[in-house]
Specification:
Chain lengths: 322, 322
């Protein structure tokens, strides 16, 4: 089979690619070709694999050619992130809505009803003066995005649901939780500290936590997130029971629990490298986020949240030291 | 002020235009210019009014010029209907999503944050195997459209909410109920009989009712629908309390109640012109529709449903005989 990963050179995309290449099959078929489309070239370990083909450049430019590719399966992970979309509305519309629509149109034109897993986000949920956000958002919580990013993700969820109902594609949408611990450097995302307060101390560097220790948030490790994307791909339409968008499993943790876990895994000295210094802008954004998420439908498919934040930290240490 | 009505030559649009011209003001300002954009020319009584300007042709072609028009207010009623969108997916995407986006982009480019009332639909709601449709859909019922039309309306609701949050426009979305009694001829819409079983007998013509008398449905008279659109336009952002999409008030009636009302208003002989002949295709579509709607948020703005179906029939008789 021929599989496309958009955003295939990114953190989640490249890791998903490695997992698919290692397991060799997807939904019972052999992965013969893996096309990684991204703005940037994928890491060398991936391009060295004979099954991998890289497509570099803006997704929108590649979509016209995708009809002729006749992919069997697609993981559509490419996306402008929340902060970018909030700063530049048109960029977000182009990168997230127009590119997704062009991709879906190409998959429809191919005529083989390809299966596609779309990475949506917990950002579809938001507080609404009329309908307060529940502390724990469920699959059937009324979405009310408070960012352009969340709006664009929700619009794409609906387009995918309708195009699937019409038989053009076989779509499903996974609402990803905040993935932590991400390697690399802090970025401009308001959620960046959810990785930073673990990653920096483990590297012997001080980290600033911009919110109170009582802040609670739904998180998922990279490994569990990728496992969930694959299992959602492999689920039958019957198992999905009609609705196509679902919450991925989340470990709902407070910052305090994250830091307790850090101390348990790496010791008090490492934990002491985290300093609380409230940032009103970030704290204000985070206050609008769900405190946790439930995932009854994903759980029914056999998907599971991480067992503990200690496990998430150990996974990060293992990933970065091997 | 300068007001645009898209779909301004249609049944609701032309009636809204007449109402605005007669009341002379909108939200406290004088209506100096009323632009009616539609595929067809508006009725003569409208074009004779000096305040009216007609723009004929596809909406998408007009939008580029709208930035320079700097409308103060817009009623965006133009839409491909449910049946068309289901037969021709691309037509629906173009007419409902692309045209709305082009209109919103032009309003944003104008730079004066125009107010816009968008006609969404009760079709955003649908049965969902995971989350059964409640008999009465409320403002905060989870939308799950089962048609391309409903999907496109929902996507537009969300785009309008986000562009309003960004300060580009001042938007609000009204989920219209089935408007009855519509004048004219039966059309291909599955809901056509909700007008036909009243209109045809009143004209001395037999009408076929394709569903059981027990079928319940949310309806609204043309007059109440137009009153609601105007009141929603005139509501302040504070009154809307954050969320922008709301159900318009509905009279929830069964077909039996409609026919009892027909007999009460027009007599048993007229009522006897309705013959039940089940149409499985139409009955199947209607079975997926809400049995009724509530409208707490619209009610809080002072909007009201029709008092009775007798009133709705009397309104139709008055409209068509004067």
């Amino acid at each position: 089979m021929k599989v496309l990963i958009t955003g295939g050179a990114g953190f989640i995309g490249a890791r998903l690619a490695r997992t698919l290449l290692a397991r060799e099959t997807l939904a019972g078929s052999r992965v013969e070709q893996l096309v990684l489309a991204d703005q940037f070239a994928p890491p060398d370990d991936l391009t060295r694999d004979k099954r991998v083909r890289a497509l570099t450049g803006p997704l929108l430019g590649h979509c016209a050619g995708f009809a002729a590719e006749r992919f069997d399966g697609v993981f559509h992970l490419a996306s402008a992130v929340s902060g970018e979309c909030e700063l530049d509305f048109d960029l977000g519309m182009r990168s997230n809505l127009d590119s997704t629509r062009a991709l879906l149109d190409a998959l429809r034109a191919a005529g083989n009803t390809p299966r596609i897993v779309f990475s949506s986000s917990v950002a579809v949920f938001g507080p609404d003066p009329g309908v307060p956000l529940p502390a724990i958002v469920a699959d059937d919580t009324l979405p009310a995005p408070q960012t352009s990013y969340g709006t664009q993700k929700l619009m794409c969820e609906q387009l995918i649901a309708d195009m699937t109902r019409k038989g053009f594609i076989d779509g499903r949408a996974a609402r990803l939780m905040t993935v932590t611990v991400r390697p690399g450097k802090p970025n401009a995302a308001a959620s960046s500290f959810f990785s930073g307060v673990i990653r920096e101390p483990l590297a012997g560097v001080e980290a600033i936590c911009p919110v109170d220790a009582s802040v609670s948030h739904p998180v998922s490790s990279p490994a569990r997130t990728i496992d969930a994307l694959i299992r959602l791909y492999e689920a039958s339409r019957e198992q999905l029971n009609g609705r196509l968008a679902l919450n991925l499993p989340a470990l709902n943790v407070t910052v305090q629990q994250m830091l307790d876990a850090l101390e348990a895994v790496a010791g008090a000295k490492v934990r002491a490298l985290v300093r609380f210094q409230r940032d009103e802008r970030i704290a204000g954004i985070v206050a609008n986020w769900p405190q946790g998420a439930s995932s009854a439908r994903a759980n029914a498919l056999g998907l599971k949240a991480d067992d503990s934040f200690e496990d998430i930290i150990r996974q990060y240490i293992e990933d970065t030291t091997r």
